[in-house]
Design a protein that fits this description.
The protein is mostly helical and 509 residues long. It has one domain. It is 86% helix and 0% strand. Helix 12 packs antiparallel against helix 14. The longest helix is centred in the N-terminal third of the chain and has 39 residues. The radius of gyration is 23 Å and the shape is globular. The chain starts with 5 loop residues before the first helix and ends with a helix. The N terminus and C terminus are likely disordered.
Length: 509
């Protein structure tokens, strides 16, 4: 882990994630201020999603295969062979990305129509014009994600977390500038901002002495093995992305601004998970891949138990806070400029429904990584297909009387089913985990969270009599954190005590 230990690296990643996600919230807030929840923001959000969506189809599958393959190749054949493999993967999939970009450039309007069937002609045309520009960053995003994986393998976790910093700053600037020069320039802002992430990594790659050179050795056995892994993983990733496409497409039919309101709720929900879970999954995935390659099953089980325990300790209380204070959170983040009360109520309602499944989304994501580290992509695909069927059925049922909140609730319910299926599948594969302690921990955290959330709600309403929303919520949040820590010591929640004791020692040093 270099000069940092696992716990300190995890903590630093969380701090950096909080800072970066705060700037991400600022970006969404700036968009809401200038464009509210209307056709321009809907078109912009779809255009931002397209490169990320395309990467999610292709890039996530590559990344999932890259880490265990690189680790195994370096162990068996040495660093030189591993680097050649890395450059081949980057070159081949950059060429594929270029082909996808040309397709989107030519067929932008039909592609956007699939993503948002409810768009009128004006919104469709604007979104398509943005998409033709923004999709060109796909080549840079694919390379950037693979470079991040390489740096993670080299125990460099902190700088890769910061790649979103220049991106968000550039997006904020582009939104502000477009309000003066014209919203037509928003597409160029997306292209420049998303592409900047790769260039931000270059100093770290130079420091690690990584030398990129174009290489197309498609007959190499390792490349062939990667393709064998990627194809089924691609199917599994596609299933999840199809789910998101259906969500946004249905949101576009519910109301003008439906995509934006759903997106604002999703931004908050995703940011919370990224801040807390991203650092855990990033470090865990590399370690799990190493344990799998070395056949260290007991260490693998311990790592999975620790990851699950960390998720329960952190996400359960956060979920309660978000559910109780959803309106306050949305108001503080977005309630200004063109973002009106109606948009606030729609967004906060969707946020509550997303929060219901927050724990299970986190558990699902970490369990999927475990299967992929074992080069087992069939199990996640099979379970994902079951979950997506549930999600699609519930989307149509719940959205018919709950609107966009129904789409968010359907996502949460499908996440619950997926996480449960993944857990029992993993149990069959590697044997029993520490279920007794995990169940006991779940009950303790649940009880503590209910008590703390009730106390926070009571305090907030008292403070609100004389103080504003922001000050009242900030004080309540600090109070809630301290009360949660106190109860963790009273109820002897060892995972939290160990983390806090480690943190205190670091501060004292």
């Amino acid at each position: 882990m270099g000069k940092y230990g696992v716990k300190k690296t995890t903590f630093l990643m969380m701090v950096l994630s909080i800072i970066i996600k705060f700037i991400g919230f600022l970006r969404s807030s700036v968009l809401a201020y200038y464009y509210g929840a209307g056709y321009i923001s809907d078109a912009y959000n779809i255009a931002c999603d397209i490169p990320i969506l395309l990467f999610a189809f292709l890039g996530n599958a590559i990344v999932t295969a890259y880490v265990p393959m690189f680790t195994q190749i370096e162990k068996d054949e040495g660093e030189k062979a591993a680097l050649k493999y890395s450059n081949t993967i980057i070159t081949v999939f950059s060429i594929i990305s270029f082909g996808i970009i040309l397709f989107i450039t030519v067929f932008a309007e039909p592609f956007v129509r699939i993503l948002a069937v409810g768009f009128d002609e004006k919104t469709l045309e604007l979104a398509a014009s943005f998409a033709r520009i923004s999709s060109w960053c796909l080549i840079f995003i694919t390379a950037e994600r693979l470079f991040i994986c390489y740096l993670n393998i080299r125990n460099n976790y902190l700088l890769p977390v910061m790649v979103s910093l220049p991106m968000n700053i550039l997006l904020i600037l582009s939104i502000a500038i477009s309000s003066k020069l014209g919203y037509e320039y928003l597409g160029f802002g997306i292209l420049i901002a998303l592409s900047s992430q790769m260039f931000f990594l270059i100093p770290s790659l130079i420091k690690e002495k990584y030398k990129f050179y174009p290489c197309i050795d498609i007959k190499n056995k390792n490349v062939i093995q990667t393709v064998k892994i990627v194809l089924p993983v691609l199917l599994g990733v596609s299933v999840n992305q199809i789910n998101k496409i259906i969500d946004k497409s249905l949101a576009s039919t519910i109301a003008v601004g439906g995509i934006s309101n759903l997106n604002y709720a999703s931004v908050i929900n995703t940011a919370i998970q990224d801040i807390v879970i991203f650092s855990i999954i990033t470090i865990t995935f590399v370690k799990i891949s190493q344990f799998v390659s070395e056949n260290r099953t007991e260490e693998l089980k311990k790592m999975i138990n620790k990851a699950i325990s960390a998720i329960l300790c952190l996400i359960i209380p956060i979920s309660f806070v978000v559910i109780i204070f959803s309106k306050e959170i949305v108001t503080i983040l977005f309630m200004r400029g063109s973002f009106d009360k109606g948009a606030m109520l729609e967004t906060s309602s969707a946020l509550i429904c997303y929060s219901v499944g927050m724990v299970f989304v986190s558990l699902r994501d970490i369990l999927i990584k475990v299967f992929y580290s074992m080069k087992d992509s069939k199990t996640p695909i099979r379970n994902s297909i079951y979950a997506i069927i549930i999600n699609i059925v519930l989307n149509f049922i719940l959205s018919s009387f709950m609107g966009i909140s129904g789409l968010a609730l359907a996502t949460s319910i499908s996440a619950v089913s997926s996480a449960v299926l993944m857990y029992f599948s993993l149990k069959k594969k590697i044997g029993k985990l520490d279920e007794r302690n995990i169940s006991f921990l779940f009950i303790k955290i649940l009880v503590i969270s209910v008590i703390v959330a009730a106390a926070m709600y009571f305090l907030y309403n008292i403070l609100l009599i004389n103080l504003g929303i922001f000050i009242s919520f900030a004080i309540t949040l600090v109070f809630g954190v301290l009360l949660y820590i106190a109860f963790a010591y009273i109820f002897k929640v060892e995972d939290i005590k160990v983390f806090l004791n480690s943190f205190i020692r670091k501060i004292i040093r």
